Amino acid sequence: RRRRMRASAQLLPLRFVALLSHLTLTITAFSTRSDNVLSCLPSVYSEDEEASKDKELVTALSLSLVAFAIEVLSFFSGASMFHGPASVISLLAHTAGVIAMGFFVFDSMPCDAIWAVFACCCIPPALVAAFLIFTTHIRKAGA
């Protein structure tokens, strides 16, 4: 007789693929940064405007990488690996992030939109992961 897997265990590979795909597109956005910055600028721009947009993009992408690091730490430490709600939040956020970053990298998307992607697709799973790391390790330390 075959036992049914828990939903969180079934979501595990999907969550991992969505997380890695979103991370890959974020790293790709770093490597194509100059093209993305130029597509965000008007046809006539100054060097200060270009530097400002570049700094803004680097800041958003760097903060995204920090959020990824928190989530990967939580995932591989086991704090969130089989946590159902965390898996659903992560899967939904990173799937949306893959779609948005795909448009950002391969199409011309306004640079300001990267902040919306960061706020909606990186922050929620990172906050959940940080909370789970904190509660898991505090509980273990207190026991």
Notes on the structure:
With 143 residues, this protein is mainly α. Helix content is 82%, strand content 0%. It contains 5 helices and no strands. It has helices at residues 7-31, 33-40, 47-77, 84-106, 113-142. Helix 1 packs antiparallel against helix 3 (47-77) and helix 3 (47-77) runs parallel beside helix 5. The model has no long low-confidence stretch (mean pLDDT 91).
Radius of gyration: 18 Å
Strand elements, count: 0
Q: Describe the main β-sheet briefly.
A: none
> CA-to-CA gap between the ends?
38 Å
Work out the oligomeric state of the chains in this entry: single chain
Low-confidence sequence ranges: none
Q: Class by helix and strand content?
A: mainly alpha
Strand content: under 5%
The amount of helix comes to over 70%
What is the helix/strand order? Answer: HHHHH
Please report the number of helical segments: 5
Indicate the overall shape: elongated
pLDDT average, as an integer? Answer: 91
What's this entry about, in short?
82% of the residues lie in helices and 0% in strands.
Topology:
Layout: H1 7-31, H2 33-40, H3 47-77, H4 84-106, H5 113-142
Task: Provide the descriptors you would attach to this structure in a database record.
143 residues; mainly alpha; elongated
